[in-house]
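Appendix C reproduces, verbatim, an entry submitted by the partner laboratory led by Prof. M.T., so that reviewers can inspect both the input and the predicted structure.
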Amino acid sequence: MKNVVHDPAMIDDEMRQGYLGPFIKKHDIFRALGRMLRDKEIDLLKEDLSDIHTPCLLIWGRHDRVVPLSIGERLHEDLPNSELVVIEDSGHLLPEEKPEEVYQLIKGFIGVATPI
């Protein structure tokens, strides 16, 4: 988990148990993870992405070590109608590391004026 968050101080027992729980309680998760790794599809080509014109909000953690920012930047370049927002002092678990910031970005992007 230390490789997934920017600030390891946020990792507490509750967070550890939340991520560990599915591995302890259900053996099917190991089978699913194995299939996901074996069945990984080829990344979409730049030509395929350029055909997607749906507005896309890409929210990336500056210090994401799982899917580095360079991937987000390339995705942003390839998606013609995308907006890339980089959140400082964050890693891969943006909704947990910066929940209010992520919420406000999504709310603004979809134009929702009422709180969840």
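The chain has a mean pLDDT of 84. Additional entries are available on request from the coordinating office.
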